[in-house]
Amino acid sequence: MKILTCPAQLQRLEGILRKSLPLALPVFGAVLNINRGNPGHSEVLVDKWPEFGAVLARPSGEVASSVLPGPGGVPGAAGDPRVPALGRRLHPHRWPGDTGVLGGILGRDWAPAPGVRVGSLSPSHVDLLNDTWPYGGNARSRRYLAEILGRFPQVCLQDSSGHPVAWVLTDHFGTGTHSYTLPEQRRRGHMQVALTLAAQRAHARGFPTFG
């Protein structure tokens, strides 16, 4: 496999993958992040260039754990390399992550409910995130959540005291990795507002949104 480091090649790869959506979703978001400052310190590999048949995105220096076929490739297994111990699989024809962001909500103007405002999560909220994530509850998941919290966009709705009531986190692959509303705050439209804001901000940065 060849690691692409040339900015021109990475920009060209982004254009090729964009034309191959949604099949390319498991790696497209990672390539977008790499081309926009690479906050997750990721790298992308191809079997050959420029006529590649497979493309892989992973944290820099890590051993490959999945390969996504490129344009014209034959779909195969794609294990989630973000947190290998969690073992989630990515399916190329649907949005990877806990909660999809619907492209249809982009044109709507949702506002938080009375007493709720748009804020942001801080490092002090890592334990709350770890306790409420389906794959959380251990030291490794806590480190992972702290990393994506510090590096990637997130949306948080807060009550009048500044306590988080709903949030959406994104990851190295530009996908929604942890979306949650506190049980006592559900059925008030909070997640719809958070997802709308996340989709609008992602769209503004050139990231696609899919249901």
In short:
With 211 residues, the chain is of the alpha+beta class. It is 27% helix and 18% strand.
Word description of this protein:
- With 211 residues, this protein is an alpha+beta fold.
- It has two domains: 2-59, no CATH class; 109-205, 3-Layer(aba) Sandwich (Aminopeptidase), CATH 3.40.630.
- It is 27% helix and 18% strand.
- It contains five helices and eight strands, in the order βααββββααβββα.
- It has helices at residues 7-18, 25-35, 126-132, 139-151, 190-204; strands at residues 2-4, 42-46, 54-59, 68-69, 117-119, 154-158, 164-170, 176-181.
- Strands 1-2-3-4 form a four-stranded antiparallel beta sheet. It has a four-stranded antiparallel beta sheet with strand order 5-6-7-8, with helices on one face.
- β3 (54-59) and β4 form a beta hairpin.
- α1 (7-18) packs antiparallel against α2 and α3 (126-132) packs across α4 (139-151).
